[in-house]
Amino acid sequence: MKIVIIGLGTIGKTVLKSLSFMDHTITIIDEDKDKVESLIEKYDVFGVVGNGACLDIQKEANMSDCDLAIALTNSDELNVFACLVAKKIGVKNTIARVRNPDYTKQIADMKDELGISMIVNPEKETADEIFNLINLPSISQMEHFAKGKVLLVEIIVNSGSLLVGETLISLSKKLKTKVLVCAVQRGNEVIIPSGNFMFETGDRVHFTSDASSLREFLAEAKLEKSPFKDIMIVGGDKIGFYLASELSTKKYNIKLVESDKDRCEELADLLPRVTVIYGNGTQHDLLTEEGIEAMDAFVALTDIDEENMIVSMFANKMKVTKTITQIKSDDLIDMLGELGIQNTVSPKKIVADKITSYIRALANSRGSNVLTLYRLVNNQVEALEFSARTKEDFYNKPLKALRTKKNCLIACIIRENEVIIPDGNSQIQLGDNVIVVTTHQNFDDLTDVFE
What we know:
six-stranded parallel beta sheet, globular, Alpha-Beta Plaits, about 30% helix, Rossmann fold, 15 helices
């Protein structure tokens, strides 16, 4: 496909990096000449310097026959206008980054009229992910497939857990609720487990579950934690606002700490059910005075990764049940586990995954399409949802009779409204949606899974 990325900030560069591993023709547009030239050297892309919403610049980038334009500048208005211009000159699909809460709902309502295929809001989507982590205390990550019918969940195996010392085979005999363990991260190693795999303390386990059975499984496996009540958020930017707003609709007691006085006053007006505190959320005395040790969850959302890491480590020391840390820098990821930081969110990764999933589905013209894609374990594992639309030789055969490629796992089959956690006797049928977990990169069809 021919793709143009307008705006090369943090999100734009992350999307470019994700797409650079795929077979697309990519053009980048930004007003910063040095940034454009640097990225042309680093990746095999074309570049144009200028305002990506300007008709002349879009013509210079030969966008009239473009399959997709992605507008990711820091200006919502410029992104929407760039998509309007792109659509006018013949671009088939457009994606706009829209962050302002005042615009989000109205632009979503006007999406079709504006000719925008997808709207991405990194802060809102990050807040949604954090909300899920708080709403289900036992999990450290959760993704949705099949319009929410199937969940891909990550848990951390703690000492004393029912899972410690069990193999997949022995665990399946003890539990009534069916889930399928897809991938395990142990230190820096990624494992697609077989039946004899044995769980150890500290393992990060990814499994698929019927959405309606998740809580039942967590309870049965003695992984369920008491519901949270008291939440502290440090950082009142857009993510903090979206998160506090969403949490305040539930029965949570929320304290939000913000260091900018004007922003505090604004948040106090916007969030009447939230206790907004003016102060430096990285200061020991303020955190202790506001009762950090009594919190069920602590969320670090400042603009500085190192500050988020330090206050999260302090929250862990104060025995807060769940600490969630925003991390923007890829360079810090590898050391987080060593520091005891287990639950992290990255706005750029969340948006890049969403855009990449959309592009994979758009680009694939063969019988089985990628409907949904998530990257796990620092991008070492892909979880993909395929639609089985064209008859294949491997349909209607038991999975145990088929040969899948190494490090590939059929994690779930969705047949109409039925969610099937597969075993060796399960079969793929025409019309099914199939979830696959693999360490291979860039699968774009269900046929890629089988030898």
